[in-house]
Amino acid sequence: MARIERKEYLDWLIRWSGQRVIKVVSGVRRCGKSTLLEMFREYLLEQGVNPQQILSFNFEDIELEHLTEYRALYQAIQSALSPDKMNYIFLDEIQHVSRFEKVIDSLFLKSNCDIYITGSNAYLLSGELATLLSGRYVELKMLPLSFDEFCRGVPDSVRRLPKTEKFNRYVEIGSFPFIAQFADKEREAKEYLRDIYNSVLLKDVVTRLKIADIQNLENLSKFLFHNIGNRASVRKIADTLKSQGKGVDQKTVEKYMRGLIDGLLLYEARRYNIKGRQHLTTQSKYYAVDIGLRNLLVRGQEADHGYVLENLVYLELIRRGYETFVGQLDDGEVDFVTKTPDGTAYFQVATSALNENVLQRELFPLRKIVDNYPKYLLTLDEAFASADYQGIRKMNVIDWLLGD
């Protein structure tokens, strides 16, 4: 399988290379973290780094099981260090090592160690490690393929298709790097997605949280995947599941939801009061890390094309480095408010705005915002795809995803 270049992510590693901080790459299982590190190691070799200066450990490999005790790992690394040169140390899926923070902290004390770690959980940087490394690390939050990357990774038979057909494949089978080669093989794609889902659920959620009732966890997972883009609260979810005969108490729902978010299957989009410029702590929305996984869990049900499109835009916004919220107005809502050091932007998402009533409905909340930050309406419309409505720019969402 040909590897797909992840230029933005690779450039991030290159930019931070040699800096006196620990580089942390987090992301859902099989989103491409190990391949990214492999590409970066190749870059180092091309720059003249001696292979003996590169120490790489992938703790998903059973052959390294004897190094999952922190003292054994530290001794193995210590004995292999080149004393008078910079050592590039890669610790892949580090969460498998007990008390791994002790190893990282000790290595960081050495001036000739450049440290890179990856993990498949949001809690990688929680608790003791976050406290220990405070101010001493930078984090790259990695996602599966963007639509642009997907188009570059599919077989030639799919690459030659019109962009709208490629987009439909992307929505159907999802965005995991390995799956792009199955863009013309739906059955194989679904089998691979099922394996990813089970791996994350069992290894990253059930095992960590010591969950005995896996069925209730799956019920909650399917509920949240089906209701992407809808406001949700722990109480509302618990009441809904109870009415369906799948009852779990609020405390359990909260615990399971945190597990799914920490396992990076779901992302929480918090609300932001635009007028008051303050973050809200209730009624968040939740989005799937991959629409292919969502299709796997809710197949046979209503497609909810608008919410699916909204989910894709949300992922692309955070992929591009925007801090992204759901915008709250006194009498309405803006799909997304993004924040960066450079400023703010607002996004509305709709499958189509060719109907005049729909167009005015989508423009209304954007027109209520009185500042001069950029405002966008993204749709799937091909006719009249681009327009400007008194400073609100309408764009075709597929072109926007491709960076056009």
Primary descriptors:
alpha/beta, 404 residues, nine-stranded mixed sheet, 2 domains, 43% helix, five-stranded parallel sheet, Rossmann fold
Please characterize this protein's 3D structure:
The structure is a single chain. The chain has 404 residues and is of the alpha/beta class. It has two domains: 7-141, 3-Layer(aba) Sandwich (Rossmann fold), CATH 3.40.50; 148-401, no CATH class. It has 16 helices and 14 strands. The chain has helices at 7-16, 33-46, 70-80, 100-108, 127-132, 147-153, 156-159, 163-173, 186-209, 214-226, 234-243, 250-262, 291-298, 305-319, 356-367, 397-401, and strands at residues 22-26, 54-58, 87-92, 113-119, 137-141, 231-232, 266-273, 278-288, 323-329, 332-340, 343-349, 375-379, 387-389, 392-396. A nine-stranded mixed β-sheet has the order 6-8-7-9-10-11-12-14-13. The chain has a five-stranded parallel β-sheet with strand order 2-3-4-1-5, sandwiched between helices. Helix 3 (70-80) runs parallel beside helix 4 (100-108) and helix 8 crosses helix 13 (291-298). The longest helix has 24 residues, at 186-209. The two termini are 28 Å apart.
